[in-house]
Amino acid sequence: MPLVALTGGIASGKSTIAARLAAHGAEIVDADRIVRDVQAPGSPVLDRIVAAFGDGVVAPDGTLDRAALGALVFADDDARARLNAIVHPAVREESARRFRTAFAADPDRVVVYDVPLLAEARSDDPWDLVLVADAPADLRIRRMVELRGMDEADAAARVAAQVDDAARRALADVVIDTDGDLAHTLRQVDAVWEGLPSLIAARRR
Fold this sequence. Notes:
globular, 2 domains, Rossmann fold
């Protein structure tokens, strides 16, 4: 029952890696998707967020207005800590449920948890392997500007708001260098997949 964590900073190529692992047969559990699911209308998590931050974080259709909430917590460490105290336990519980479901369906399947905030929230969990997508901050900023149409200052602020790259690399069993072309990234992912049993055995030793 291999349980692999995949993390990386914003625009580091993590989604590309996850897609390649899925193509090889891994079950991908997406932390961002879980966050959206646990914050769905009518959920206890959304109710607690509204109680903490006000009705202004709810869109007219009753869903969480992520942009409005982000504006409140992005540059406010205390507010972000309050939000994380609401969201992280629910995400942890739901991710564990999805891991159990995946392994019950196929005990031998590789399950990959695609989790941006591994260093911030899940570094001590019992992973069989930790993969880190890694690219220089200036390249990731350029990707956000060119591929996502973001303002450069906004992109730089988002990179700066995350844990620094060295902290993520310190958790890694394997660093996947994503500053080259797509083929360069995919070759590394293929090599990880091929060597997964030995990589996991090495970590366990």
